[in-house]
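Input record (one chain):
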Amino acid sequence: MSENGDKPLFDVSSLADGMVEIEIFTKNDGRLARVFIFPETAINIAQELTQAAVRARANGEAK
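The corresponding structure, as predicted from the sequence alone:
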């Protein structure tokens, strides 16, 4: 859960072969996408999503 009680923006879990699985969620629709990527890419995506969420909130685009 996020700090305001919404569903998580993303969930990253490790896989046995070194890849990671990311499930991207929306507040209203549940899981939107599931992808398998390298850990470094997962970190970059998490950082970009966090920055986008901060920008959206600062611009009044997100609640």
